[in-house]
Amino acid sequence: MEARSLLSEFCSNSTNLILQKTRKLSTARIVSSSSSFIQSHNRVSFKTHYHTKLVSQRVEIKRRLQCTNSVEKAEDLNAVVKDSGNGVRHKKLAVFVSGGGSNFRSIHEATVEGRVKGDIVVLVTNKSGCGGAEYARASGIPVILFPKTKETEGLSPTDLVSALRKFEVDFILLAGYLKLIPAELIQAYPRSILNIHPSLLPAFGGKDYYGMKVHKAVIASGARYSGPTIHFVDEHYDTGRILAQKAVPVLANDTAEVLAARVLHEEHQLYVEATAALCEERIIWREDGVPLIRSRENPNVYS
Ligand code: GRF
Question: Which domains does the chain have, with CATH numbers?
């Protein structure tokens, strides 16, 4: 107990030091950006307003966090606060995984290649040895264990929120994370947590639909189309507002494994596209609460 509090104090002091350095070095300026829309008889038009947003100039920070167990070390990590152009700040992302992490990998590659204007600054997992966590370590991305269980030394929900704040996380991407997201996290990150589900929600969603169970149920139902859904996360399984979907055919002789592979292929593209839109602030909330993605190429087109 004592050792743990000493550790968390150390982490907290280290991170405060980093934040103090950041404040000194950054020449921040205030810009704004958000949107509201005006609804006319037959169409919906959008109007851009500007709100407060921090755009920091390029700041180099040397990070040296040295904690054990729940928050693994992140040494000599060059965190660069960047401007993505057009006054849009580069975003900081946390990805949550429980398994192989192929979606995590495809998003990470897109950030490295600049197709997503953000950086994955931390990986959260309930399975320390999963493929996603191994990939994070190999890529120099810090790993946080969550939640705390009898078997694992994970963080509590409150400590997780504090840790994500210390990493200055803007958005959270659930990518095959199987645990329920606690209310504390949802309240701390409103309209900022996305999940990917391998069926066309609201069909085949909810607590009992995960992994191959989803694809088996789709085939058994006789549905001719399936495909991934990206949705915002609320306090229930798979019920948050739908942001993006891609239809994939279900073929006559499909097995669950074959269908899963076809859907997963589309997941990788769709999640990258949705994350790119999130980071570029191209998600607009319609008056009825439905989120839409504004096209990068044609700002008058929404999907
Ligand atoms: C994906 O099918 C995703 O839709 C679901 O979990 C799976 C994760 O796969 N939520 P991976 O770990 O990204 O390969």
Answer: 87-293 (3.40.50.170)
